[in-house]
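User: I need a structural model of FAD-binding domain-containing protein from Punica granatum for a docking pre-check later this week. Nothing fancy, just the predicted structure tokens so I can convert them on my end. Input:
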Amino acid sequence: RVGIRAVVLETASDLRATGAAILLWSNAWLALDALGVTDKLNLLYAPIERGFVTDVKTKSTQQVVYASKERDGPRLVHRKILLQVLVDELPPDTIRFSSKLNSVESVVEDGHRISVLRLQDGATIKAKVVIGCDGVRSVIAKRLKLSPP
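Assistant: Understood. Predicted structure tokens for FAD-binding domain-containing protein:
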């Protein structure tokens, strides 16, 4: 929205979502609101006012109140719908599917440090900023010498 071009590299061949739903608390809803997508989700997902928790050992159940006058409760949202709403906000061709990251290195080009990403298909991408969300076998985490999960 502020003109910063982004590219999302996705290993999968298409948009996919595992699991049926995700529980989004009010802080997550505020983040989605800042992205401008809650107007599409509000019609489908109302805040949960209360729920029940059962202790599996004692079989006792107690009610949990999530909502109050001061705050909304969490919302249970279908993963696939959430992903689609987010994707619909992106400019075309922002997501590159079937893009497996092989390596990332830091280089200096024209006096500025940049990252060079090399993909399995032989493509190379130069970036000023890299955000890694690439899972337990993270190429990014390995590059940063982070300890294994």
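Before docking, keep this in mind: The first strand starts at residue 8 and ends at 9.
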